[in-house]
Design brief:
It comes from Pseudidiomarina sediminum. A 5-stranded antiparallel β-sheet has the order 1-2-3-5-4, covered by helices on one side. The protein has a single domain, classed as HIT-like (HIT family, subunit A, 2-Layer Sandwich), CATH 3.30.428. The longest helix is centred in the middle third of the chain and has 17 residues. The chain is globular and about 35 Å long. The protein contains 2 helices and 5 strands. With 123 residues, the chain is α+β, with helices and mostly antiparallel strands. It is 19% helix and 20% strand.
């Protein structure tokens, strides 16, 4: 298992978070630097560092995170208008905490591409 992350500390209630959902497999809480009116992070209680570390046996757990995202979006009234769910992988993919997590963003129209002003790296 990787070293303890800030998400492990939130799971263990060592640091506070505005929790919006919890079950035996996952925890969801509001992002402290929201990028949309609703910005929730949905994490598994089992630590998996990156998407690259997801194993075949983790597929139900990862799928569960998307079910939780759907529930939260519906509970907050965003299911009909729409929402975005994003999972980043490693530094170039925007991952800053090495414990997989979904970003649920809602409450505004999401543009495409999401980072239109970012230029790709030169080969």
């Amino acid at each position: 298992m990787s070293s303890e992350t800030i998400f492990d500390k939130i799971i263990n209630r060592e640091i506070p978070a505005e929790i919006v959902y919890e079950d035996e497999l996952s925890l969801a809480f509001k992002d402290i630097q929201p990028q949309a009116p609703l910005h929730v992070l949905i994490i598994p209680k089992q630590q998996i560092a990156t998407i690259n570390d997801i194993k075949e046996d983790d597929r139900e757990l990862v799928g569960h995170l998307f079910v939780v995202a759907r529930k939260i979006a519906a509970e907050h009234g965003f299911a009909e208008d729409g929402y975005r769910v994003v999972m980043n992988c490693n530094a170039d993919g925007g991952q800053s905490v090495y414990h997989i997590h979904l970003h649920l963003l809602a409450g505004q129209t999401m543009g495409w591409p999401p980072y239109a002003n970012n230029k790709p790296k030169q080969a």
